[in-house]
Amino acid sequence: MIRLTKKTEYALLALQHIALSNGTLVSAKEISYSHGISFELLAKVLGLLSKSKIIRSVQGVQGGYILQEKPEFITLDKVIRSIERNSTNIVECSHNHNENIESTCTCQTFDHCTIRHPMLIIQQKMDELFISITIKDFLLNTPQVHRYEVELPF
User: Fold this and answer.
1) Sign of the alpha-carbon torsion through 76, 140, 148, 34
2) What is the pLDDT of residue 30?
3) The whole model's pTM is what?
4) Are the C-beta atoms of residues 145 and 19 closer than 8 Å to each other?
5) Ordered DSSP codes for 12-28
């Protein structure tokens, strides 16, 4: 079954939370506490999003995270690629952009594969979908984020 990893789920939750904060800095502790998710894994995910320039990290006591661009410009494809290290492939040989796929594919049935073409079509449709969905789509019909003004229990 095709499934997003926990890291990608956390990235989407964090980006949704940050986007709903209306331009104010959001701490990792706040996101973790608000959604009941692992602070340690979330911190790693936020680091990857920051490294990919999807969010910006502001250091200091009142620091936190803020989006680098408007939610409508951050695609699901960009988020997944930043977290999953550029991989949105459903099967090993479905990466359309690699012209020399035969030399890098380790699939034992590559030379006589009967499903490669249909898988390429599925991959193309998934890529189109991932590019068409943005963080703004994750904000629709979403209750506002609860901001915690008190010190968090960490």
Assistant:
1) negative
2) 95
3) 0.80
4) no
5) HHHHHHHHHTTT--B-H
